[in-house]
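Entry 14. Structure prediction run on the chain below.
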Amino acid sequence: MGRLHIAPMDVFKILCSYVVPVEQSWNEQAASVIYTLRLPRVLAAILIGAALSLSGAAYQSVFKNPLVAPDMLGVSSGACVGASLCILLGLGSTFVQMGAFAGGMLAVGCAVIIPHQSTRNPFV
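Output returned:
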């Protein structure tokens, strides 16, 4: 859906037009909107959803807990600290994103390493 209304059957015909010969009953503007705006957004949403589900499954397997969430272990807070630090330093949006990623990874690292260090027997 968007500002330019394109009938669902026209969308289907536009998408099939490069694979099979279809009689053109739409204008070029509709085809341009489908191929340059809507289709890339749909594909990006599918890929991002798949990546999020995969990362959630990996997160649950690392901590061996099916109920684990990023908020429970401080990952979200670590990401906020990293992003806030970059904002306070006046860095650009790319550095803010990298700082958030680094802060989240640091929080995950602490959540994984600290329990392993505290369970080791220091007298062995």
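The radius of gyration is 23 Å.
Filed with the rest of this week's runs.
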